[in-house]
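User: Structure please.
Assistant: Input sequence and predicted structure:
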Amino acid sequence: MGRASHALAPETLQALLSDRARAAPAKPILDSSNDVVNRISFVYGFPDGDSLPAAEVAEATARVMATDGRWALQYGSNAGHAGLIDVLLKKLKRDQGIDAKPENIIITAGGSQALALLLDAFINWGDTIISEMPTWLGAVQAFNNVGASVVAVPVDDEGTDTESLERELKRLRRQGVQPKLIYVISNFQNPRGISTTLDRRRQIVALAREHGTLVLEDDAYFDLRYGGETIPSIYSLDQSGSTMYMGTLSKTMGAGMRLGWLVATPAIIHRLASLKVDGGTNVFGAHVAADWLPRRLPEHVGKLRQIYQRRRDLMLAALEQHMPPGTSWTRPEGGFFIWVTLPEAIDTTRMLAQARERGVDYLPGSTCFADGSGQNQLRLAYSYATDDQIEPGIRIIGEIVRGELLEAGRR
C-alpha cells in the first residue's frame, strides 16, 4: 500500500509555534541556492570558489586522522578544541594585537553562532540593542528573532557615527532604558565596506563605559585588507572588559568549515559555554583547522588579497562606466562589499526581478536595515563573481537603473 501524504494544518502549526518563530519570516530571506551558479551573483558574500584550499585541507585532514583521529571524531568541550584555541590566540596576538588567554575565547559555528549565543545570554524580548545601520543582514534577522528593540545609528565615511551614538545613549538614559549592547562591524563594514576610524573606536569604548553597556565588535573581514593602515581593534583599546570580539574562518579558510570565535571576559565566556548544547563545535573541523592555520594561513591570505583587490577594482571601474549621474558608491579598502546609493526614484527591491530575469543578482538595501529603509540602495559583493562577469553584470544593472529613471520621468 502506498503511504498517505499528510500535511499539518497551517492554523495548528501557527498555534504551536513559539513567539520567536511566529515573528520570523515563513522562509529564509536569503538561502544559498543554484542562483549563485545560474546568475552573475553579486548577492552572497561567498569566498572565491577557486581559491578555497581544498587540497591543503585534505592534507591537513590526513595528518590529523593519522595523529589524533581518535579525538577528532569524538565529542568535544563546549568552549572548543584546545588546539584550535591555542592557534587562534597566537594569531590574534600577532595580527590583531589582542592579548588573550584560553579562558577568554570560545569556538563557535561561525560568527552567526557567536551572535546567537550572545543574544541568548543577554537579550529578553523587548530589550534594547544599539546597532549601526545599515548592517549585516544576518544581524538584522537575529535581532528580530529575539524580539529586540533596535536603535539605529548611522554609518558614514568614518564608520559608526559616534555623535549619533552618544545622542541615542543619552536619550535612552533619560527614558530609563538600559541598552544591552552596541553592535559594530569595525573593519570593512557589511554592507558599506567602511572601517571605523581609530578616534571613533576610542569614543565607542568611552561611551560604552559611561553608559554601562557592552560592545560587540564583529571583525569578520580583518585579514582581507587591500589598502590603508591596520587600525587597533576596539577590543584592544578597551581595558574595562566591556568589549567582546567576534571573528571567523569563513572568509579565509572556507565558509563550510563553520568555525568562528568570540573573545570576551571569562565570566561571559563561561556563561556562553553553559548555554551551548552542541557537544563541541565541529570538533573534527577544529582539529583540521588547528593543523592548517599555522602552516598555510599567511600565504593563503596573501593570495586572497590579490584576488579580491583585483575584483574590487574591476567593480569600481564598471560602476564608474555604467552607473547614471546621481549614483554614488563606497570605495572599500578591504572586505567583500560595495554599497551603492541610487537616485531617490529607484526602488532596488522592485528592480530586482528585472535584474534576475537578465541573469544578475544583488542584495536590496532594505534588507540591511531593521526598519526596512534604504529602498534606493543596494549591496554588491565582488568576492564570488569571476573577473569576467563583473563588468557585464554591472552594465546590466546600470541599464535597468537608467530604464527605471526614464520611466520615472528622469534622465
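The first strand starts at residue 40 and ends at 41.
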